[in-house]
Amino acid sequence: MHTTSLSHGTPALPAWRVWLAIAFLGIGAFAIVTTELAPIGLLSAIARDIGRSESAVGLTVTLYAWVGAFSALLSAVALGNLPRKPLLIGLMLGLGLSNMGAMLADSFGMLLAARACGAVAHGLFWAVIAASAAQIAPARHVGLATSIVFGGVSAASVIGVPLATFIGQQNNWRVAFGAIGALSLVMALAMAPVLPRIRQEDTGGAGAALAGVLRRADLWGIFLATAFAVTGHFAAFTFIEPFLREVPGIQASLVIALLFGFGAAGLAANFLTGVFIDRYLRPFLMLALSMMSLALIALGYWGATLGVAGIGVMLALWGAAISAIFVGFQTWILRTAGAAAMPASAVYVAIFNAAIGAGAMLGAWVLSRSGYSAVMVVAGLGSVLSILLVANIGRPLPAAPELAR
Fold it and tell me: Could you tell me which residue ranges the Major facilitator superfamily (MFS) profile domain spans (predicted)?
């Protein structure tokens, strides 16, 4: 039987077990991202059931993202030498219980509390999953292992959110959360006999490395550009389901189909991004940001007159663009950070999640004062600000007059 030697002193394992463990981590990623984004397709149903406005229910996305941001940043220095196998299993159990709590919540406060508990697991999970997959996989297949794990993220947008929306429409939004919770609990049980034990390295210098990242102006330029783009995206995406419901001629079944189209375009864009991103990172990223801005502003100004086909095209354009944007900024961070890639990624994840929360809150604020069209236009302006930052990242500042020669 073919066996694979793992890093950090982990005994050799059969190849089938190595790849099954990595596949389970990918399914875990699918479950945790679907948990984060599930309310987006269920806003109307949740709002009707608990007697709150859709903008208020959007705060369940905000709270989840901000708690996840804090726990991701904290994990960079707090996880220490905790063994990864029981940690990952425990986090999946926590995610499952959080979804079950959301399913049973009989008040808005209980729903927020259940979501906050899941968000803690979310941030910690993302802090260790990529490194765990890299340690499980053979050295020559680390890239493949990472792509499998993060494929769960794309699958959550393509399949998870529309499927949760479909379940909620056919049954009840509580059933959708229960289904995600059941998947999480099953994965926790499945991981127990399959995940190997992974010995951890000493992380005593993690605090100093994190402090070093926070002092780097080159990384902060990318962090801020990411924050504007992600804030704009989630200001609009959080309310995409009720926005589509307001468009004449779009029924509930079409909402699901359009969300599938959005996600499928993003999945397809991953392949194009892989072809161009290494050689043309900055111009490719600026093109993607321009596409997203164009699509959002078009939806805001002309959404009601575009028709189903026109809206489908704009959603596909937006879905493809945001996929390229996510990959582009993450690649730029890793390329720029060099040896500080791990703490830089922790900060990136924290800022990314904080921007998700800020976007949901911004969208709710605009919605409470105007309408869904205004939300789309404001979101499009966020990507415009990101374009301006991307265009100037890494460019030398002009010399001071007294130093110029």
Answer: 21-398
